[in-house]
Design a protein that fits this description.
Blueprint (H helix, E strand, L loop, with lengths): L1 H18 L8 H19 L4 H14 L13 H9 L5 H19 L1 H13 L3 H15 L6 H13 L18 H18 L5 H14 L5 H26 L9 H13 L4 H19 L6 H14 L5 H5 L2 H22 L2 H12 L5 H14 L7 H17 L6 H14 L10 H7 L5 H29 L3
Helix pairs in contact: 1-2, 2-3, 2-16, 3-4, 3-16, 5-10, 5-13, 5-14, 5-16, 6-7, 6-12, 7-8, 7-9, 7-11, 8-9, 9-11, 9-20, 9-21, 10-16, 10-19, 10-20, 11-22, 13-14, 16-19, 17-19, 18-20, 19-20, 20-22
Length: 477
C-alpha cells in the first residue's frame, strides 16, 4: 500500500498543476511540461521507482505528449520531441560522470584507495586528532577522481575506519563518544567539503555544469572551479577535524593502537602492485590534463583516454566496465535529468519565471540578493533526500531568476550556488549518499546528528559566503 501511494502522489501533483489555468505569458504546452516536470521531481524525492527509471519515464512521456519544441518560439513537433528526449545522452558531462565512476572502481580493484587510507592512519593516527586528519586526508586524495562521495567515503573510507573504534572498546552500544562518534562525523563532514573543493568530487557538480551551460550559457573548467573555491574549502578542510574535536569531542585523546593495526593491514596487502602503480600514474595523468590541458583536451576526452589506458594496462577489464551497475545507472539517470531540466528552457518556462521573479525582487541590492538566493538554495535541502533531485529541480529556476536581475554577476552567483551542493550534504541524515551510512553506524545519536548538521551546515555556508564571495569580487571573477 505504501508503494501504491508513492506512485499515485506524483501523478496527483502533476495532474493538479496540469488542470490549473495556464498563467498569462506562458504557452499551454509550457505549462503542461512544467506539470510533468514537477511530477517527475516529486517521484525523484519519494522514489516509487528507482531514480533512473523515473527519468526514463519523464523523457518518454514528454516526447509522447509532444511537449518540447526545438526552441521556445516554435511549436512542438514529434521529431523535435524525440531529439530532446535523447539529447542528454550526447552531453559530454554525463559521460564524464560515467568515466569517473570507472576511476573509483580502479581505485577499489587495484587496492590503491585502501593502501592510501591505511598509510595515512599509520603515519598520523597516534592521537585521536591526528587520526581525524588522517581520515580527512584519505578522502582528499581520492576526491578529485571519485565523483560518487558514496563510493569514496561510504565505500572506501567507512569500511576502514569502522575497524578502529572497537580497538578502544568504543562501539555503538558501549561508549560511542570515546572515539567512534568523532571519527564518523569527521569522515562525513570532510567528504562534504571535498565534494565542493573539486569539480569531479561530486556527481551533481558535473550535472550542475551541464545545467549551467544550457540555462545561462556558462561553463567552468576544472582548474577554474578549484582556484575559485580553494580559499574557502581549504579553510573548512583544515578546520573540520579540529572543529569536531571541540564541538563533539572524543573522550579518548590518544589512539596508539590505530597505527599498529594499519601497519598490520598494510603488511597483509604486501608490496605495491603493478596495478596500483598504474592506477596512481593514470590518476596523475588525468589530473595534470584537467588542470593544464584545457586548451587542448576537453575534460571528458581526458577521462575517456584514461579509461582506455586503464583497460590497456589491465587495471580494469571490459567485464568490469559492463558489470558496473552503478555507473550505467548513473549514466541513464543523469542523461535523462539533463534533458528534463533542459526542457524547462526549451518550452520557455524559465524565461517566463525569471522575468516574473526579477520584477518582484526589484529594489534590493545585488549583495543582499546573492546572499539570500544562495542561502535559500542551501537550506531548502532539508526538504530533499537527493542532491541530484535538488540540483535538477531548483538550480535552473534560481539561475533563470538571477539572470533576469539587472547587474547580477552571473558567474559569481552561479559558482556560489554550485559550491553549496557538496556542503549541504552535512545537514541531515538523508542529505547525501554517505549520510545514512554514517548515521546508520550507530555512533552518533539522532539528536546529535541533527544538531551537528545544523551547526556545521551554518559554519559551512557562512565560510563559503564570507570568504568566497568577496574573493570572487576581488579577482573580478
Amino acid at each position: 500500500m505504501k508503494n501504491v501511494w508513492k506512485a499515485i502522489l506524483p501523478l496527483a501533483v502533476g495532474a493538479l498543476i496540469f488542470l490549473l489555468p495556464t498563467p498569462n505569458g506562458l504557452a499551454p504546452h509550457a505549462w503542461q511540461y512544467f506539470a510533468l516536470f514537477v511530477a517527475i521531481i516529486t517521484a525523484l524525492i519519494i522514489e516509487p521507482f528507482p531514480a533512473a527509471a523515473v527519468g526514463v519515464m519523464g523523457i518518454s512521456f514528454g516526447a509522447a505528449l509532444n511537449l518540447v519544441p526545438a526552441a521556445p518560439d516554435k511549436a512542438p513537433v514529434p521529431a523535435d520531441a524525440v531529439r530532446w528526449a535523447l539529447s542528454g545522452f550526447s552531453d559530454g558531462t554525463v559521460w564524464l560522470i560515467f568515466v569517473a565512476f570507472m576511476f573509483a572502481m580502479g581505485y577499489e580493484k587495484s587496492g590503491l584507495g585502501r593502501r592510501i587510507s591505511l598509510v595515512l592512519i599509520k603515519k598520523l593516527g597516534r592521537s585521536t586528532l591526528g587520526l581525524g586528519y588522517a581520515v580527512a586526508l584519505a578522502d582528499l586524495v581520492l576526491a578529485p577522481f571519485t565523483p560518487s562521495n558514496t563510493a569514496r567515503s561510504g565505500g572506501t573510507i567507512f569500511p576502514i575506519i569502522k575497524n578502529i573504534p572497537p580497538l578502544y572498546g568504543s562501539t555503538p552500544e558501549n561508549e560511542p563518544r570515546k572515539i567512534g562518534g568523532y571519527l564518523m562525523w569527521v569522515a562525513l563532514a570532510t567528504t562534504c567539503v571535498t565534494s565542493t573543493m573539486f569539480l569531479t568530487g561530486l556527481a551533481p557538480n558535473l550535472l550542475a555544469m551541464s545545467l549551467l551551460e544550457k540555462t545561462v550559457k556558462l561553463k567552468f573548467e576544472w582548474a577554474e572551479w578549484f582556484t575559485a573555491l580553494a580559499p574557502a574549502c581549504i579553510i573548512l578542510f583544515l578546520a573540520v577535524p579540529w572543529l569536531t574535536y571541540v564541538l563533539y569531542p572524543p573522550t579518548t585523546k590518544r589512539s596508539d593502537d590505530a597505527p599498529k593495526w594499519a601497519s598490520d593491514e598494510l603488511a597483509k596487502m604486501g608490496p605495491v602492485t603493478r596495478k596500483e602503480w598504474s592506477m596512481a600514474g593514470l590518476a596523475v595523468f588525468a589530473l595534470v590534463l584537467w588542470i593544464f590541458g584545457g586548451k587542448y583536451f576537453n575534460a571528458t576526452t581526458v577521462a575517456l583516454m584514461a579509461l582506455s589506458l586503464m583497460l590497456i594496462l589491465d587495471v580494469v577489464n571490459w567485464t568490469d566496465v559492463t558489470s558496473n551497475k552503478n555507473a550505467w545507472n548513473v549514466l541513464v539517470w543523469f542523461g535523462t535529468l539533463v534533458a528534463l531540466a533542459d526542457g524547462l528552457a526549451k518550452v520557455g518556462f524559465l524565461k517566463w519565471f525569471a522575468t516574473l521573479a526579477a520584477t518582484s525582487m526589484s529594489g534590493l541590492s545585488i549583495t543582499v540578493l546573492i546572499l539570500a538566493l544562495v542561502a535559500m538554495f542551501f537550506y531548502v535541502h532539508y526538504m530533499f533526500a537527493s542532491l541530484t533531485a535538488h540540483t535538477t529541480a531548483l538550480l535552473p529556476v534560481i539561475l533563470a531568476t538571477a539572470s533576469g536581475i539587472p547587474g547580477m554577476p552571473m558567474r559569481t552567483i552561479a559558482l556560489l550556488l554550485c559550491a553549496t551542493l557538496g556542503l549541504m550534504g552535512i545537514l541531515t541524515p538523508y542529505a547525501t549518499g554517505p549520510s545514512p551510512i554514517y548515521y546508520g553506524s550507530g555512533y552518533i545519536s539522532r539528536t546529535a546528528f541533527w544538531v551537528l548538521g545544523l551547526v556545521f551546515g551554518t559554519i559551512f555556508i557562512a565560510v563559503l559566503l564570507g570568504v568566497s564571495y568577496p574573493y570572487l569580487l576581488m579577482i573580478e571573477f
